[in-house]
């Protein structure tokens, strides 16, 4: 968005989330026997976080934006994989732009061209993996993946506290944590 190469209208974000993204409160639709062997969309017609995506896309792109966000819940405990369907100019340059922007960031890894992330690849980490596939002259798909139990609110809180209090940004965030 900052490069001005991505169209700010009709951005489609399709996300798949493990059940831990819904919290720990008892909900019938999140019981194993209810969710196993199925996938379902939720939060429609407009998910509660869609307004934030619109706002920040507009800030970064310095123009009004339109984001359609549709999350899905999967029968797995942790992980979130988001697929962004984007149109714009020179998508063949987007990988380099992302790689340059995130170079040196301890918890963001832009994967080699042609490599897409998976929830298994980030499981137990505070990392966000990003991959990109150019699918046309003016189109690309960007896929990002996080472990929503670590890179979600809890990991963000620790990372932000580290920065605020002058600790090493990665303090307490490099150990693999695999429960649940």
Describe the structure.
With 180 residues, this protein is of the alpha/beta class. 23% of the residues lie in helices and 24% in strands. The chain is built from 5 helices and 7 strands; from the N terminus they run E-H-E-H-E-E-H-E-H-E-E-H. The longest helix is centred in the N-terminal third of the chain and has 12 residues, at 50-61. The radius of gyration is 17 Å and the shape is globular. The mean pLDDT is 89.
Order of neighbouring strands in the sheet with most strands: 2-3-1-4-7-6-5
Low-confidence stretches: none
Q: How many beta strands in the DSSP annotation? A: 7
Overall pLDDT confidence: 89
Cα-to-Cα separation, first versus last residue: 35 Å
Major pleated sheet: 7 strands, mixed
> Helical element count?
5
Task: Characterize the overall form.
Answer: globular
In short:
Helices cover 23% and strands 24% of the residues. The chain has 180 residues and is α/β, with parallel strands linked by helices.
């Amino acid at each position: 968005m900052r490069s001005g190469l991505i169209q700010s209208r009709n951005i489609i974000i399709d996300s798949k989330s493990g059940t831990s993204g819904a919290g720990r409160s008892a909900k019938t639709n999140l019981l194993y026997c209810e969710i196993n062997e199925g996938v379902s969309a939720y939060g429609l017609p407009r998910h509660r976080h869609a307004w934030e995506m619109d706002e920040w896309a507009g800030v970064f792109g310095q123009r009004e934006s339109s984001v359609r966000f549709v999350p899905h819940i999967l029968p797995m405990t942790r992980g979130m994989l988001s697929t962004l369907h984007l149109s714009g100019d020179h998508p063949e340059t987007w990988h380099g732009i992302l790689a340059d922007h995130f170079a040196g960031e301890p918890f963001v890894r832009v994967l080699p061209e042609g490599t897409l992330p998976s929830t298994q690849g980030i499981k137990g980490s505070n990392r966000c993996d990003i991959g990109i596939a150019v699918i046309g002259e003016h189109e690309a798909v960007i896929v990002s993946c996080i472990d929503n139990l670590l890179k979600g609110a809890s990991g963000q809180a620790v990372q932000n506290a580290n920065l605020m209090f002058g600790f090493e940004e990665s303090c307490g965030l490099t150990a693999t944590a695999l429960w649940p």
